[in-house]
Queue: 4 jobs
Job 1
Amino acid sequence: MRSEGVKSFCRILLVSMMFASVFACAHGNLDETFVSEPYVRERWLPYIADGKIERSEIIQKLGEPTSTFQSGMILCYRLILVEEGGDLSEKEYRNILINLDAAYIGSYYGWVDNRRKLLSEKGTLFTVREPNKEEKLLEILSREAEYSLVLVFGDQRTLARHSLRRIMP
Amino acid sequence: MKIFFALVLMLFSSACIIIPTPEHRDHGRVPCDGDKTTFMLKDTTNKEEVLLKLGEPDLVLNYERIFVYRWEMVAAYFFVGAYYSGTGGPIQRSNFLIIEFDDKNIVVRREMKASVFSSRTPSVETFKSPQPSKGP
């Protein structure tokens, strides 16, 4: 009778240990909703539509492009998703990097998901250009996502084709 | 006795282990290889198409004739153990996609280069065509 009890206890212990090991190995999944290309396009770039917007209007809204090709017929914008407001302090920057490292190493993305949600409400798409690269270095290094917006204009200086690609992370 | 020996060995020896893994992206730029470049055909695809599909290049050379895209992949992990401490991390492999265009902005060369144990961008000369290309 006693040995039956010990056997049952051992079985329960074994099953518990198996469950514990399974849960210990469980990893979270990164929520891509707020950094996906369709979301970013709708949230920050709803005015970009082929055949409907002119080059000058784009420059008025997004500022000077990061680079141009084919004598200015193609404009490229390097856009980073960052916190809106003033310059990032050294302390804030360190905090973001520590949390990002911990999330990617540990595969537990709670902090990253929260940041993405916050950025979707209060963040901004910032255009990186050669003149502001040094000034915004901390923001660039701690960006949540980076996109490449390519705009091709027709002869009439109206947007003919465009693409928005998430290039990082 | 064997267990005792293994424990003694673990406690009193330091070591460096390299574990090769299938290449995978940790974080960083999205790779520009495989399915992403199947659209590109020599003597057919133009510069506009390349920019629309791959985004802005990381490096532009020779008056927009050469585009270079760069990304990192993890090729292995290293672990160094010492007496009271240890460290480890990924070994990155830098990948480069080099695209060259002709006078009419059509792709004439597409090349992939990769280097392990080097985080620095190779010299600009290494991206240029083996044959001297003409200016604009």
Note: Chain A has a mean pLDDT of 84.
Job 2
Amino acid sequence: MLRRPFFWIIALVIAAFAVLPAIGNDVEMRESLVLACVYITLASNLNLMLGYTGYINFGSIVFFGLGGYICVWLIYAHDWPLVWSLIAAGAGVSALALVFGLGILRLRGAFFALSTIGIVEGVQAFAENFTPWGGSSGIYISPQVFLPLGGSARALWVIYFALVATMGASLYLSYAIKASKFGLGLLAIGQNEDAAAILGVPTPRYKALVYSASAFLPAIAGGLYFFKSAFIQPSDAFDLTLSTEAIVICMLGGQGTVSGVALGAFLYEQLRGYLLTSSTFANFQLTIAGVLLLVIVLFFPSGLMGFIYSRIPAAKKVLE
Amino acid sequence: MLGILASIIDGVLVGLVYGLAAMGLTLIWGVMDVINLTHGTMVVAGMMGLYLLANALGISPYLTLPPVLVGGFFVGVALYWIAIHRMVGRPPLMSLLSTFSVNLILIGVGTAVWGTALFNVEVSLPGFSLGRYTFPGAHILAAVLAAVIAGLLYVFLHYTRIGKALRAVANNREAAELVGIPTTRLLAIAVGTGVALAGVAGMLIGTLFPFTILSGDGYQLKGFIVTVLGGFGNPIGALLGGIALGVLEGAVTPFVPVSWTLVIEFALFVLVLIAFPNGIFASRRGAL
């Protein structure tokens, strides 16, 4: 893997994310890149389901929100250090996803997609009624928790670097799975699940495993994101907009590609930043995401990377 | 004893409306294997049609039914040509995404224009009393209308040429095409009918409960469950599924917080799908 150019391209992207805002201590750039990191993490992990396996997960935000809740709650109520809280959040959400996945992944295609909407409703209802998590008013943590990281100004940089690492891990995970036998099995499921099963791909186990794997890093990203804002409540943690945007990003960049999804996330983040600041479009963010998605689904189902591959066939060898 | 009877009657009344709300969804699903994710928004469009027509023109709420029905049909045909036509025969996930994106657009425009304010349409009809319990007149009328509309849909599907052709398309699109049925036009009619039903359901629900632009989600989710309970593309099944859901809701409400109701229903959705992949009340002869 180390010999493949794509490995080093990912490393370069991570380095650029880490170094560029740090050079001039550019806080504004960092905040914009925080969001780009979250988008790339969510979209890459969604892509494991949507792009590789061909299963739409409308509820990928659940991993993010639940990870955030577990992490913030462990810090708030049990004084756990950040690192252990993050690991617990990732492992906990992954394990939950595995259990749920074994159940709902028995449903095929569209039924799975519908039941992921149910999962969002279920988890949100849980968070709203679970008193240790503060119900619908959520959890606040005091700025004291930033002290072990060297005060809040420095803590924000530490969190940022951790988010960049999470994003990098997401890209490498996507790449490693795609290059593995496991990934080949997933792609086979995406093309024809019955044929894949007949050829010996253990489809139920693979689907549950990839569902669980796609939960780990978003949960950590959620933990970091909500630790950063020191506040979490159900309506923010399970905001369906972010799930929707992750789907748009996957389709925009090219489902099933690693670099396309990252590129799509970055471009979408830039577009969103522009839309939010423009006075005409500020209220129409979802509408524009919808138009974008509709145009892609109708006319360019293979996304940006499909376009690049068709123009520059050599790119197929370098960019996964 | 009377209490149980009253809660069953209430469940049936609500369930008939749920069934009507799901009928359009299940019709489109059954005919072309497309899950219309704009369904909830179309239900809300019916509510808004009721609100705007009843308030702006000052006509009786129930007289808004014909314009909502006709308007819904044309909106549905437009939806077919915009989002569904190119998706027929492609993987089902693509039509899921295309209707999902149309829904985003509609919701985005709707919230930009109307915000998330609560709308209410006043309907005063004499109720029906049973001992200590009173069933509101609007509820009874809505349930009766829902049953009548389901009956009309059944007659349309089974005794008219277009309806029979629709069932033929649902059964086997290629064979239907071979015997000279213009399948594309019929698919457009199916989506038009489905959306018109969603709009009428919304209009009837609007006479019962206050609503916002985002109210459609809940009815859409219940629609999935009703569809799965009642079998795909089967309007009478949808009505039965709706009643089952309404009675179930009445039975669980005293014991669990309201926000859990939908979760319980979704658990049911998954379990039913695993146990009966074709729906509980599904006919043995296939779709429709």
Note: The mean pLDDT of chain A is 86.
Job 3
Amino acid sequence: MSPIYKVSYVVTGNDHPGTIANVERPPKVGDVVRLGDQSYKVTEVVELIPARGEFHYLHATLAPARS
Amino acid sequence: MDPIEVLKTVELFDGLEPAELGAVAALCRERTYQAGQVITTQGEVGDDLFVVCDGFVEVILSRPPGDQAPRTMVHLGRGQIFGEMALVDHGPRSATVRALVDGAVVMIIHRQDFASLCEANHHLGFVVMRNMAADLSFKLRHRNLANR
């Protein structure tokens, strides 16, 4: 099985409540991710807890992306 | 949507043998919701566990009457579970959950069927309950980070 990245996304700079979702590729600083109808830029990624099996647990901080 | 392929990507079922995954898949019902459609309602009795297969749902917490407006606590995407608290403690739903996008697909597992499966197969029951505790822990860590 391919790695699965369970990511806790927290948005700074607006009232987005944050998102938890599984993704196939780990987010990286500078990436633009789309949550709902808004795009956000990744400003920080940390390992939230150690990986277990194929599951990796990450936390990503996001800021609204400028269009 | 092949339930076994979906369940393989859900942390709750990580560590199950193929036959055990098949037994869980046999309990799953798939349902599709449109944006805004309510899936569970805060305060109601809950008999099901839900797995998000596609799209996003939002978890909304209502406050006491006269207090602030309901607050969206988190959005949950693919591979996430909800409804697990009522599954474990048999209490009322702790929040309202509704679809955030059109075509949000969830798998639904009835509590009693799932409990019977866990009781009949203690390895399956141990793995799922351990993973459920880890998922609740992850949600709590997320909440702590969101509140910084």
Note: Residues 4-64 of chain A form one domain.
Job 4
Amino acid sequence: MDISEVRKGSKIMIDGIPYNVEEAEFMKPGKGSAIYRYKLRNLVDGSSTNKTYHSGEKFTGANVNTREGQFLYHDGTHFIFMNTDTFEQYSIEESLLGDKSHFLKEGTIVTTMMLEDKPLDITLPIFVELKVTKSDIATKTDTVTAQMKSATMETGAQIDVPTFIKEGDVIKVDTRTGTYVERVVTKK
Amino acid sequence: MTDDERQRLARLMQNLKRSAFIYQTIRSFFIEQGFLEVDTPIRSPTIAPEKEIIPFETEGWFLCASPELYMKRLLAAGYEKIYQFSHCFRKGERGHFHNPEFTLLEWYRKGVNYEQMMKDTEQLIITISTRLGIGNTLQYQGKSIDLSLPWDRFTVSEAFQKYADWDPTFNPDLRRFDEDTVLKVIPNLNPYRPTFLVDYPAPMASLARLKPSNPRVAERFELFIGGLELANAYSELVNQKEQEMRFRKEIKQIQKVQNRVTPMPEKFLRAIANLPECAGIALGMERLVMLFCDAKTIDEVMPFTIDKA
């Protein structure tokens, strides 16, 4: 597509990497060539960058779409998901997911961003419920302020939790910040 | 009509009223000085060949991108002081300060050069400011702009050496020139004063004559206020041969780089033979109104931009 067709929200390929145009500024001296200033989000690693282009530039649109997937299992190097519409399975390399993998529990529904047929990234639900598998016993008891201690979740995530949380408890975690929200009361 | 549109248009009413007042003030300003208001075609068989101004084509003709050539044909026929508000169309120009359809105020005077155009512009804008009751201090986007005369003048050469560390007069790299103009020069001009950038490098002369005392530059200026490029003016080129040569070069470039066919404006070229020494200017009306309405974007002074049409 010609640069004049690029808009805020367009997804374009630059050097083989898909970018989302987060901000587009059009500037033009009356008699001169148009200058386009973009704030771009790298859709592979999430980094952001500013770039300046001139009129006449051509771009290839990035064929980016999203689909819903359910996390099935981890095979050591890949996370395997099932497309909830077609029931087809697809896998994402562990390295692409980064810390997000620490919040993935069997059955979690995520939104997967695909470049053509290749998964790029996932968006987690904002809150997930995870079981505490290991937790130290709080040692300090000499204060009334909210004490926190480190705990390990069933997915491997390390979360700071209040001292009253015990192994086997289920807690609600905010995946945007990786922090404890509340204890989930489970029916026995 | 949707609630959104009704509310949007209602919000614009103050600005549109102010805009109408500004148009009326400009008309009286020119009429009082003996100018004649003219009206030239919005759709025409030829336009000035300009690589960076992409026209809309309509059944083999063009929508007006500037009334310049017709205005000069009138001057060539003996008209001495003329002005016009002209709807103009330029493809792909959309941004905070751009809409593909916009309005140019152009005026021309016989027997003067671009110096007079600077004086006219100063007087015109001071007059509007005075009649709006604002006086000499214009509030725009949080800054107080001091309009007292005379306004600051820098040559393009001075401004580029100061803000972009190079002199385009001796090294006319057009691409770099455009980029540095918008990214380095304009953002660094004194925000509290109107500024004329004068004497553009000869390759950017367009339809301006070269400066007799320094033919490396053209007698062309642009006016900037509050970061807005407001007007562009020339001591008009009245040499037929030279104008034809510049057009030929531009037409070739347009064909080569953009694969766009631009016919030679023959009737205009013939008229140049009778064109007296004169100067002219084009001023963006929406941007002028933006300044006096403290508007951040052109959308705040136009009821129906391309996205809302």
Note: The radius of gyration of chain B is 19 Å.
